[in-house]
Design brief:
Elements lengths: L1 H28 L2 E8 L4 H16 L4 E7 L5 H13 L4 E5 L5 E3 L1 H7 L3 E4 L4 E3 L3 H5 L5 H21 L4 H9 L3 E3 H6 L5 E2 L3 H8 L3 E2 L2 E2 L6 E4 L4 H9 L2 H20 L5 H19 L4 H17 L7 H17 L11 H26 L14 E6 L7 E4 L2 E6 L9 E8 L2 E6 L5
Parallel strand pairs: 1-2, 1-11, 2-3, 3-5, 4-6, 5-8, 14-16
Antiparallel strand pairs: 6-7, 9-10, 12-13, 12-15, 13-14, 15-16
Length: 433
């Protein structure tokens, strides 16, 4: 009897334990996390993508937002916006430097350290956060000192806010130091080394973030991809694409001016110009570069009216090249445009203006070669004295009724100045203007 009772109690206990384990598993598996993937340069569209990911996870009451990160760096302004979003978020955010071989360089260091949970995959790196690689361009000593001081304080505040190694964070800015995943974990720069997302979710489980314990083990993963608009604007913010837009805007608008009524060049030029202005408003474009490009166009146009034997054309090409080079000099090193793009673009622009645009501009100012307007400026002989009321002239073997503001005697020569219907307006060739 006692044996049977013990067996019964053991069975009840086993069922209870299994039910609890199953309940816990179901509870965990019912949890959901949002995952977004950020790769490449940090810019305005990445800020928009992360903000949308936060809103999506928050609106759907997901357990956390995980940012898979692989970046060489990016714009300081965009990095600051992202860090502010992350520090203000009550929703747990984990930054996972992944896949293996990925890098959280420069701007990525700031973003990783601003997360509630910072994680890295094996064989990844973090660091090299000097502001030179983040902001780009040449800086004088005073400006460099100010920028370094600001970024050091900025990353120190982030590290202290998240209880991470502030001393190393400052050295990443001052000396450009970088760490492997193992070194970063040992120095309290990150919290977790995870081989994949499931491993990360298991290690995140149970951690207390913003006063709540995370339940992420066996959680459902929802991947939030970039929208069509985010992909499109990321594409047009590439320096190479912005240079192409600049060329299309120039060629299209000049093409429409030199060939009125063509429509397609003008429409393409205006659309390219609008997209270019969007890029200029979103990126730290150098204004001096735009001025030099504008000066280059002025020199190209002047070539059409000045017998400079190519001097103005050459000067315009040099001005265009320097302008395009300066246009993107305020961007990080990895975002600056290469000479492999600049040289062909300069040669193509020089060829366009020398063969097409200049010919079109000259054509707009040539005398008319057909119709009555083609006779304006030519000389005729007065057959009957011409006055403001009557008169006749002989031009190219034809008699025309003529009028003139000043009387012109018979037999004198006159110059044709215009036509009104079948009336020819003339003036004396000796008449002073």
């Amino acid at each position: 009897m006692m044996v049977q009772l013990r067996r019964f109690l053991l069975l009840v206990f086993s069922i209870f334990v299994l039910s609890g384990a199953l309940s816990a598993y179901q509870s965990d598996s019912s949890r959901t996390v949002t995952v977004i993937s950020v790769s490449g340069t940090i810019g305005p569209t990445v800020t928009s993508y992360i903000e949308r990911g936060l809103d999506f996870a928050r609106d759907n009451e997901h357990e956390a937002l995980i940012i898979k990160l692989d970046t060489p760096g990016g714009l300081l302004s965009s990095t600051m916006d992202i860090v502010q979003l992350m520090l203000a978020s009550k929703l747990p955010i984990a930054v996972y430097v992944s896949p293996e071989g990925a890098n959280a360089g420069s701007a990525g260091t700031f973003i990783s350290m601003a997360a509630h949970i910072a994680a890295m995959a094996p064989t990844t790196t973090i660091g090299a956060a000097s502001p030179v690689s983040m902001q780009g361009g040449e800086m004088d000593t005073v400006m460099q000192k100010k920028l370094f001081s600001f970024t050091e304080n900025f990353i120190q505040n982030i590290a202290e806010k998240r209880d991470r190694n502030a001393e190393w964070a400052i050295s990443a800015v001052q000396d450009g130091e970088a760490l492997t995943a193992k070194e970063a974990l040992e120095l309290n720069v990150i919290d977790i080394i995870a081989s994949d997302l499931n491993d990360l979710l298991s290690q995140m489980d149970g951690r207390v973030i913003e006063g709540d314990s995370l339940l992420t083990k066996n959680a459902t993963i929802v991947n939030l991809e970039k929208s069509l608009a985010e992909n499109f604007f990321s594409f047009i913010l590439l320096p190479e694409i912005m240079l192409i837009l600049t060329l299309i805007a120039i060629y299209g608008i000049v093409g429409e001016v030199t060939n009125p009524g063509a429509i397609i060049p003008g429409v393409a030029g205006v659309i390219a110009l609008i997209l270019l202005l969007y890029g200029v408003s979103s990126m730290p474009i150098n204004v001096a570069g735009f001025i030099l490009i504008g000066f280059a166009i002025a020199l190209f146009v002047a070539e059409a009216f000045t017998p400079s034997f190519g001097i103005l054309l050459t000067g315009g090409a040099i001005s265009f090249f320097l302008g395009a080079l300066m246009l993107f000099q305020d961007l990080p090193d990895n975002m600056q445009i290469s000479w492999y793009w600049l040289v062909p673009a300069t040669l193509l622009t020089m060829l366009f203006f020398s063969l097409i645009a200049i010919a079109g501009i000259k054509a707009q100012f040539r005398p008319n070669r057909s119709g009555l307007e083609s006779h304006i400026g030519k000389t005729a002989k007065v057959i009957d004295a011409v006055s403001s009321d009557s008169g006749r002239i002989d031009f190219a073997g034809e008699y025309w009724n003529a009028r003139s503001e000043n009387n012109i005697p018979k037999g004198e020569n006159c110059e044709i100045v215009g036509f009104t219907g079948l009336i020819c307006h003339v003036k004396s060739v000796t008449q002073k203007i």
